Fold these 2 entries.
Entry 1:
Amino acid sequence: MSKGKIVSIHSFRGGTGKSNTTANLAAQAALAGKRVGIVDTDIQSPGIHVLFGLDENKMGKTLNDFLHGKCAIREVALNIGEHAFDAEGRSKLKGKDIWLLPSSIRGREISQIIREGYDVNRLNEGFQTIIKDLNLDYLFIDTHPGLNEETLLSIAISDILIIILRPDSQDFQGTAVTVDIARSLDIPNLILMANKAVPKYDFADIKKQIEETYHAPVAGVLPLSFDLADNASKDLFSLRFPDHEWSKALRGVANAILAVK
Amino acid sequence: MPGLFDRLQKEIENKQGEGGITALDLADLPPALRKIMRLMLRELELNYPQLKEAIASLPDAERLPMNEVDEALDVLTRQAWLIRIGAGEKAIYKVNLRRKAGSTVASGIWNTLDSKLKK
């Protein structure tokens, strides 16, 4: 197989902090000296670009352009290490090898792709080509919550699948569906992460409960944090506040990813 | 006059139009076929010698006998889940993923939406 590892980040339900987590995990991998790409496959509701300080005007080519055959995948990759110095956290990525491949946030382009569909072969070719073109160690794929074509494809081709859930009954049931699919697709490394855990509970108990339910390792239980909410996706929280409990727990998840051989 | 590359590309596009596999189909495949398809998805395309080499490099427990591999390749190609260009040792294989379908909502609704969205 190709050298670079594909890390898909998924949650069955929305609102788990998936994009925030993906951006921070990718940033931690880049800080560790890895060559990292991030693809936003949440084509219907893209958002991860915000964490890297991008808006419609700062974005160049997007994944939508690539899927419509208007450009090569390499043209979509924006070098964050060269651009994102406008916030305290992001500035720590200066000179690092980290690229973002955003989805379009233009209404017409989103509606076009929903209306017309797209060639899923081309999406997969884009993933594999960018790993080779940029000689990536890791390609992080931020997925749409729930299950659809791009999400299932990203799960199917993953070396590592991170499933995020909140300690919540609805998340528990939905996560079981994704875990079943991941197992039936022989995903080599399945890692769970709990986010937005209420601090009054015992995190060790939460970890034990999730591991017993899914028979998969939990790499971190991250607290529900008003500080993180206050950050409002304006910056990469774990880089800006590295000593915060959320950031420490996130680094545990990042270390679990980096430890996979 | 179209060149060799153009003709091969046309052949691939024609075969891709015949259907294809979804990720959920992958989950339903027998383990041996699933391993081949996952490998193909990661490598995009493999010629037959590369495929044999890749199979040989799998851990003992996962390695497949070549007669089973050949049988699997035939089955997958017949189902249009795998595209085969050429034959024998020179054959090149490529996964054929099914196109994501567009919305079935009436086109008038999309046209109205587009007229209200800026370009």
Entry 2:
Amino acid sequence: MAEIVIRNLRKEFGGFTAVKESSFTIADGEFFMLLGPSGCGKTTTLRMIAGLELPTSGQILLDGKDVANMRASARDIAFVFQMFALYPHLNVRRNISYPLVSQGVPRAEIKARVAEIARILGIEPILDRPVGGLSAGDRQRVALGRAIVRRPKAFLMDEPLGALDAEFRERMAEELRALHDRMGATTVYVTHDQLEAMQMGDKIVVMNHGVVEQWGTPQDIYDEPATLFVAEFIGSPPMNFLRFDEAIPEGATTVRLSGVEIAVPRTKQATTGSKSVLGVRPEHVRLDDAAPYRGVVVAAEYLGTTQIVTLDTPSGLVKARVASSLAVRTGETVGLSFTTPTLSLFDAASGRALAVERPMLRQAQRREAAHG
Amino acid sequence: MNHSVTEPSRLQKWFAGTLVVIYALVTIMPLTWIIATGFKSPADAIAYPPKLVYEPTLEGYVNLFTTRSRATPETLAQLGPPQTWYDRIVRQYDMVISGPSRYGERFLNSVIIGFGSTFLSIFLGTLAAYAFSRFRVPLKDDLMFFILSTRMMPPIAVAIPIFLMFRQLGLSDTHLGMILLYTAVNLSLSVWLLKGFIDEIPVEYEEAALIDGYTRFQAFYKVVLPQATTGIASTAIFCLIFAWNEYAFAVLLTSGTAQTAPPFIPTIIGVGKDWPAVAAGATLFLVPVMVFTILLRKHLLRGITFGAVRK
């Protein structure tokens, strides 16, 4: 098991830069998610860690040793492909034992290790079947088996659940996480599905256009997005952006939205330009008849325990997640109030969040949870 | 909307079946005629109207494999009665067998040159196709077009330059020369066909093998080759058929040591209008390609429809 440090990693394909100077650290035993939209460079980053692509510049430290230019077979890393890439001419048993054969492991030991893996994954009955006729779930398990059997330093997974249907994905995601917890192996997992990333990951790196936008725990990324991109990419529905033409000075505790004062966490930074953005998650918007900031109800989406209410405000459309017991009528004008410690502020020019003080964040979240 | 293909009606099936049968009859007709002629006597072979019912004889095959000379009655008397069935056939014409013919050698030449050039075309073609399919080769498209362009004129158009080159290099009438020549002609076909097949094999299989601890070359022959067998088999059939049947270059460049069967067979006819021997030679000449094709038939059918269905 190993720690992986990515330092100033860069990859160019001809004139196109797929990954621009990325740096992050994957701690030993972590379930690490590389998240981003397609074409953001996450798969290229993963392939560089695996040794399937050579970086243009930068370092990949595997347990302190730079492996950036070593061949894949010398890195002792396992890879699970999106389409599984099981060897179609071999049966399940031979697929799983293939990496051991290349290492010259004695036959008796191969047999024992394959049997052990088959027991862990529950695929003993299909060991002697050809891989062609297997269900997607079983193929996935065989692919995992082939990765696990080597006891590598780290597992790399490229959207391993992407080829499964929605129902089965859920189950496989749980299995995968349980397997990781049991083995404690460092795992790097690429996905474009923010829910999957939040659900399974210990840490998440969010990438966009070849740049690491943010790196942290799912909670950090959700509560304190570092950029407008992250704020919008994570969460469903995404964070509301209320744009206004005013600079925010350092130490500010309020901002003015269409003439209405809104309390915000105290800023530790000022905006560089004169345009700013107030970010608020739908669950932090409350409908409050007394509030001075007003909006008209445009639509309500019923989701069981909650509903998403879309409001037309002077700063554009805002979505609020409120209890479904609350009666709202379209066309009605209501007041909006926001949970101050949870708000985010962004510099519209750079797209980056302003550093703020949030001493009350966790309390505010607990209070909200208690109210439902 | 329903995308499924509708089941053909009985009439359509009957019509399609009839067409196939007619087509098969038309193509099989000359073949059966050749095979039948091989078992006729020289007189029956040129009888008019053609004889459909005749007494089969192995005379053609005996004549194909032997050289014979006319013997005087005294010599024949000295030899006594014929010892074997083929002696008996020859004696009818007051002839004796003076030795084997050259058909065996020519046939062997065809086997060596045909299979040799097929092996070489496939070997080089697979490596080139793999490189074109997987690596960033500078000017890849231009090179592929250049390779194909060697097929854009009939090969015989360059017969004279090749003849002169072969004479300079001492390759005229050698096995090596003919193998190289047929390989050169077949290589463009094999590179293009095999590249298509290898393109269809997902690159993830090799990447999985690389990660599993194999070298690039091991990944190629342990993972890619087993999956390319279909493509290799069908390409091999096409290459062999060309090299086996090639006539023009064989006439021009071979005369003795390395002469293949196609230019030799017509010479059997000699002065005696020995059509049955010619037909026998052609019949035997068909056998290796037919056996090869039948052995690889399963792959050939799969190869032609390869990639049509997503697996």
